[in-house]
Inverse folding.
């Protein structure tokens, strides 16, 4: 289901007193990279340096401030779609011109982030309530290591640091069924995203963990509250 449909559906369930996993507030927050970054920062969770610009001119300034290479992301989106790694000011001007010409609200807000020099992978920790259910690495030659872009998933035993950070990030956004994505930056782990409606087929295959079963148990727990 599309993000906007699910958001409205969740809000109506809430209105009629039907409990949901996850609640509207958590999905709304995590589904918007601007709001999610602010919350992570407020909670003291290490996250890549990010500047949000509201005009094309401000976006160029933000890129100068962040430094090159940098990453431009649409505030709402997934699967690594429509993100750009920007290597220099010339490229920045061209991408910003394209985004502005597209005219959609999603491309008029510029989410500018430092490019994290990570190994050819990122880390995903799957959180259900207060439990770390499973974790994996997603390996790819593409700098965007989304499973949807063909990254190869491998199961991983999370280190205590990974587990602690993922749990902190999950709690910071309100908790629930959440996939916390981390990158290994030269200065340590950073959380770049908390996914509020995570897919789990790749994780199940890579780890053998019954992720669906864990989610069902949690849904039952919420239903009994
Ligand atoms: N700042 C960054 N530096 C380097 N790689 C990044 C950065 N941000 C994202 N990536 C890569 O791109 C992928 C997709 O980014 P993400 O912010 O999770 O967007 P989406 O919501 O589309 O998945 C990440 O899994 C990671 O591999
Ligand atoms: Mg992601």
């Amino acid at each position: 289901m599309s993000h906007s449909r699910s958001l409205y559906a969740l809000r109506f369930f809430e209105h009629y007193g039907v409990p949901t996993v996850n609640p509207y507030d958590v999905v709304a927050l995590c589904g918007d990279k601007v709001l999610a970054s602010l919350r992570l920062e407020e909670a003291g969770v290490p996250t890549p340096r990010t500047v949000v610009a509201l005009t094309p001119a401000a976006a160029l300034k933000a890129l100068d401030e962040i430094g090159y290479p940098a990453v431009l992301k649409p505030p709402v989106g997934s699967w690594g779609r429509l993100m750009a790694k920007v290597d220099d000011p010339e490229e920045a001007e061209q991408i910003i011109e394209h985004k502005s010409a597209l005219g959609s609200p999603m491309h008029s807000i510029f989410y500018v982030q430092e490019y994290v020099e990570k190994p050819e992978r990122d880390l995903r920790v799957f959180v259900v309530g207060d439990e770390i259910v499973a974790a994996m690495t997603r390996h790819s030659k593409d700098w965007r290591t989304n499973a949807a872009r063909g990254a190869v998933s491998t199961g991983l035993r999370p280190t205590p640091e990974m587990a602690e950070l993922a749990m902190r990030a999950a709690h910071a956004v309100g908790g629930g069924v959440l996939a916390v994505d981390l990158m290994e930056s030269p200065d340590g782990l950073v959380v770049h995203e908390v996914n509020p409606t995570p897919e789990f087929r790749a994780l199940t295959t890579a780890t053998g963990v019954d992720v669906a079963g864990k989610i069902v148990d949690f849904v039952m727990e919420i239903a009994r509250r």
Remarks:
- The mean pLDDT is 95.
- Residues 3-44+117-224 form a domain with the D-amino Acid Aminotransferase; Chain A, domain 1 fold (CATH 3.30.470.20).
- The beta strands are 50-53, 70-73, 84-86, 110-114, 121-128, 131-139, 152-155, 177-185, 188-195.
